[in-house]
Amino acid sequence: MAHAVRFHETGGPDVLRWEEVAVGSPGPGEARVRHAAVGLNFADTYFRTGLYPVPLPSGIGVEAAGVVEAVGEGVTNVAPGDRVTYTGFRDTLGAYSTERTLPAAPLIRLPEGIRYETAAAMTMRGLTAAYLMRRIWPLKAGDVILLHAAAGGVGLIVSQWAKLLGLTVIGTVSTEAKAEIARAHGCDHIVHYGREDVARRVRDLTGGAGVSVVYDSVGKDTFAGSLDSLKRRGLLVCVGTSSGPVPPLDVAKLAVKGSVFVTRPALADYIADPAEKAELAGELFDHVASGRIRIEIHQRYRLEDAAQAHRDLESRKTTGSSIFLT
């Protein structure tokens, strides 16, 4: 019998339940996938708490890797027996499961050199890093960037990708242990945001100029410092809100800060075009398969332990990527 983690009400990690579920045959445009590994992402907590509303009861999780067992009418992008990975948003919700049916369109065939665990740990994070590095801003060798949560799953991939592009990376962390991990993956300078003034330290490191781009996945606690770290006409990329939503912004401040830009991108808008998605995924897979980018899986959980995994994630105990094994 198949199993899945589901929630019948919004709230803390304890609302997550391990349940038996029936998995039917795939309908038109669908595929049935048996999971080998499932990704754990901070965005999963937003569905659980109700920040991202969904009809209840609901499954949870948007990223996994496994084998296609059957396809429905009209499916041409995958076939039974294919090794696949996927990520998405509401269209893929329900990944915390041993087996499921889902729309076939998000499925990406896995190259032979990429293991299931690696794929589950990197598809969302890796595609996020890919569009941040290749689509958001015309980065060039010599540019300096500020990367918050540099020891996190996305942070470790972005740091390594940034070094491939010849960028200087200033990374923020909360502990010395995380600082060591960030340094090992390409961060040139470390700022401890719990005990240092981030913007002041960034100005010191850049000779007063500031950075070209800030990648901020923390949100409320770091937003003001991120704005103050930008050089004239720099860009603040708000890619997450692990500390809470960013405060309302008076756009007049953007001019005062140096005609800076702010964006809140979503991965879905950068992989909506199948050709662009294939290009980003191909570049990501090539870097990983060649060893130029290492995917660090620092936490592994059983699916039935999803509540504990969420507690660890929200308390910032995790580093690198986290996955569930089915």
From TrEMBL:
<dbReference type="GO" id="GO:0008270">
    <property type="term" value="F:zinc ion binding"/>
</dbReference>
<keyword id="KW-0560">Oxidoreductase</keyword>
<dbReference type="InterPro" id="IPR002364">
    <property type="entry name" value="Quin_OxRdtase/zeta-crystal_CS"/>
</dbReference>
<dbReference type="InterPro" id="IPR013149">
    <property type="entry name" value="ADH-like_C"/>
</dbReference>
<dbReference type="GO" id="GO:0035925">
    <property type="term" value="F:mRNA 3'-UTR AU-rich region binding"/>
</dbReference>
<dbReference type="InterPro" id="IPR013154">
    <property type="entry name" value="ADH-like_N"/>
</dbReference>
<dbReference type="InterPro" id="IPR036291">
    <property type="entry name" value="NAD(P)-bd_dom_sf"/>
</dbReference>
<dbReference type="GO" id="GO:0003960">
    <property type="term" value="F:quinone reductase (NADPH) activity"/>
</dbReference>
<keyword id="KW-0521">NADP</keyword>
<dbReference type="InterPro" id="IPR020843">
    <property type="entry name" value="ER"/>
</dbReference>
<dbReference type="InterPro" id="IPR011032">
    <property type="entry name" value="GroES-like_sf"/>
</dbReference>
<dbReference type="GO" id="GO:0070402">
    <property type="term" value="F:NADPH binding"/>
</dbReference>
<dbReference type="Pfam" id="PF08240">
    <property type="entry name" value="ADH_N"/>
</dbReference>
<dbReference type="InterPro" id="IPR047618">
    <property type="entry name" value="QOR-like"/>
</dbReference>
<dbReference type="GO" id="GO:0005829">
    <property type="term" value="C:cytosol"/>
</dbReference>
<feature type="domain" description="Enoyl reductase (ER)">
    <location>
        <begin position="11"/>
        <end position="324"/>
    </location>
</feature>
<dbReference type="Pfam" id="PF00107">
    <property type="entry name" value="ADH_zinc_N"/>
</dbReference>
<protein>
    <submittedName>
        <fullName>Quinone oxidoreductase</fullName>
    </submittedName>
</protein>
